[in-house]
């Protein structure tokens, strides 16, 4: 965004009253988190050209960041009228509706954004998040998978996918995403526990037991994990070890009761 800012400055050096140049400058300043300066530049752009689509997209985005949701919704509506082929306008409108609790209407806006750009990652993320909130997990899964094909190391999307697959009891897919999370966030109890549960769910008890050791390095005082370890050892026919671990589970339960 530094390069976008420099481009905008270059335009304005040659024409200080360029509405497009001011809108580019506002966009760059917004991304650089210089919101006050961005608002001033964008307001100047709209004074020069009240029908400039980018300026309305910018205004709606800035108002969302400032939590001015009624104003943001109006600005986003204007942006979609002026630039129906700009996915950012539809996405901003979706976010504004989401902040009013209008989940279904928000999905419609993100769908509009995805019609313009099927790979618009932000809209995919928002759509999948809303579908999960609505309990429409089977609808959310292909959206999450599409988003992960674009950004396979996105921790938010991987976490969302793990939660959806776990609720759907699709353990093979769950453990694959959780395994990636353990690489990206090696100190995450969520990642290791879900990796272990996914492996356990598909009957890979040796691998699950190994993952459980990582879980218990992160949290050794949870009696549930000791009980699960005893259960897996029993399934692996390691009965004496299972008995010792079960006894330890009882002690842990008493120690932390």
Strand tally: 0
The portion of residues assigned to helices is over 70%
Low-pLDDT residue intervals, each spanning 5 or more residues: none
In sequence order, what are the helices and strands, one letter per element? HHHHHHHHHHHHHHH
Broad shape: elongated
Largest sheet: none
Structural class: mainly alpha
Mean pLDDT: 92
Q: Compute the gyration radius: what is it?
A: 25 Å
Number of helices: 15
| Approximate strand percentage | under 5%
Spatial separation of the terminal alpha carbons: 54 Å
Quickly describe the structure:
By secondary structure, the chain is mostly helical. It has helices at 2-14, 19-31, 35-48, 53-65, 69-82, 87-99, 103-116, 121-133, 137-150, 155-167, 171-184, 189-201, 205-218, 223-235, 239-255.
Task: Characterise this structure.
The protein has 257 residues and is an all-alpha fold. The protein is built from 15 helices and no strands. The chain has helices spanning 2-14, 19-31, 35-48, 53-65, 69-82, 87-99, 103-116, 121-133, 137-150, 155-167, 171-184, 189-201, 205-218, 223-235, 239-255. It is elongated, with a radius of gyration of 25 Å. It starts with a helix and ends with a helix. The mean pLDDT is 92.
Topology, please?
Layout: H1 2-14, H2 19-31, H3 35-48, H4 53-65, H5 69-82, H6 87-99, H7 103-116, H8 121-133, H9 137-150, H10 155-167, H11 171-184, H12 189-201, H13 205-218, H14 223-235, H15 239-255
Helix pairs in contact: 1-2, 2-3, 2-4, 3-4, 4-5, 4-6, 5-6, 6-7, 7-8, 8-9, 9-10, 10-11, 11-12, 12-13, 13-14, 14-15
